[in-house]
Amino acid sequence: MTGTDQVVRYAVEDGFATLTLDSPHNRNAISSALVTQLLEGFERAAGDVAVRGVVLTHTGNTFCAGADLKEAVDADPAAAADIRTQWMVRLLRTVLELPKPVIARVDGHVRAGGMGVLAACDIAVAGRGSSFALTEARLGLAPFVISLTLLPKLTARAADRYFLTGEKFDAVTAERIGLVTVAADDPLTATADVLTELRQGSPQGLAESKRLTTAAMLAEFDRSADELARRSGRFFDTPEVIEGMTAFLQRRPPRWAAEPSAPAETTGSAGRATEPRSAE
């Protein structure tokens, strides 16, 4: 892949822009190119008065596989992690602050950072064959930054289970625990039905309604995003993360040390009540 490759497609039809993640070589992983082009697409949609909302979807069998670990390993771990976490904060805030509804249409796998992007969307439609997992703990990480969008959507017990175990769950479970709005046999038709309903609202009404539903999450971004980004960045050059990412790329089980060696914490921690935390 070169720096000029298009990994996000943009199209407008019947008043809605569609942003399509199209990076099959890395299963639509969160790379510098993908984030840059997504931000450009959202900015373009925000500035087009003919666009009423945005559909975020994908090619292939994966909506988003999380961080591009190949890109992460090839760079200086600490510096690359800092850049990635800042990009993730910006991407999630962009989705939340966009004055138009964002509808995710998923028909495949969603992992790690992709879960945070999905949770940032206002409405999420998933095909019944889709699967979801928060795999950070299995890499020696934690879902720091993406918890800012995930924790407000998930039930508390579901967050406990899936943050800690990293196990996969299906679309019906995702609907039950609040991650997706609709688990559908035909996500294309189900999304079209949602768009039909959204067309009944005025642009002003949609924008102000979205401000109400995202206000608490954005307030938590203001309180906790910088701290969570710092915590995430400090983890990326620890031995456990290096081992976890190396094992993942080598397709082998990680060899964890007998005693965990997490980096030292600074003061402050986001509480469950306001639901912060996350990772890429």
Automatic annotation (TrEMBL):
Signal peptide: none annotated. Gene3D superfamilies: 2-enoyl-CoA Hydratase, Chain A, domain 1, Lyase 2-enoyl-coa Hydratase, Chain A, domain 2. InterPro entries: ClpP/crotonase-like_dom_sf (IPR029045), Enoyl-CoA_hydra/iso (IPR001753), Enoyl-CoA_hydra_C (IPR014748), Enoyl-CoA_Hydratase/Isomerase (IPR051683). Pfam families: ECH_1. Residues 250-280 are annotated as: Disordered. It comes from the Bacteria. GO terms for molecular function: catalytic activity. Belongs to the enoyl-CoA hydratase/isomerase family. This is Enoyl-CoA hydratase family protein. It comes from Nocardia speluncae. The lineage of its organism: Bacteria, Bacillati, Actinomycetota, Actinomycetes, Mycobacteriales.
